[in-house]
Amino acid sequence: MKHASFGLLVLTATVLIAPAGYAEESIEVDLHKATSEGQGEAIGSITLKEHRFGVLIKPSLKGLSPGLHGFHLHENPDCGPKEKEGKVTPAAAAGGHYDPDDHGQHQGPYDPEGHLGDLPALFADEKGKVSQTYLAPRLHLNQLTERALVIHAGGDNYSDDPKALGGGGARVACGVIKAE
User: Fold this and answer.
1) Among 85, 99, 114, 140, which lies 20 to 30 A Cα-Cα from 120?
2) Which CATH number do you get for residue 87?
3) Phi-psi sector, 176: left (phi>0), alpha (psi -120 to 50), beta
4) Structure pTM?
């Protein structure tokens, strides 16, 4: 008698629970479409919450194209357009990815050798909604204020190859993280 071998996929879930007495600080950030004229229509908000394992990212967004979107913490608290390489670019005033340790490379949210502003890619469902909670394990809430969250048109491969900064493309939405 022959036995067939089948691969087995095991999924596990980790429940992140704050210890008793843990202060649950959070910041809510309003996001708007990024246009060459400036801030466009509102698309929702993202709640950033301090957690013992990093920062929890809880989006409540609509109006994005379905699929993956690069998502990053940018260095400047400004979502305005700016001229870049001779043309006006939406949300370019947000600057580059937050990189206080000057790593100079895009490696994704889990690699300590990459930009600290590399966040988990967001997934928009078939209706353009994003509501899945994400974790940014290398960040703390106090590092986020006076910066900007930027969502890109395309996905993110967490690499600078074959395209720089994960290949996410145009900046389609932005929100400034203000100090509370």
Assistant:
1) 85
2) 2.60.40.200
3) beta
4) 0.84
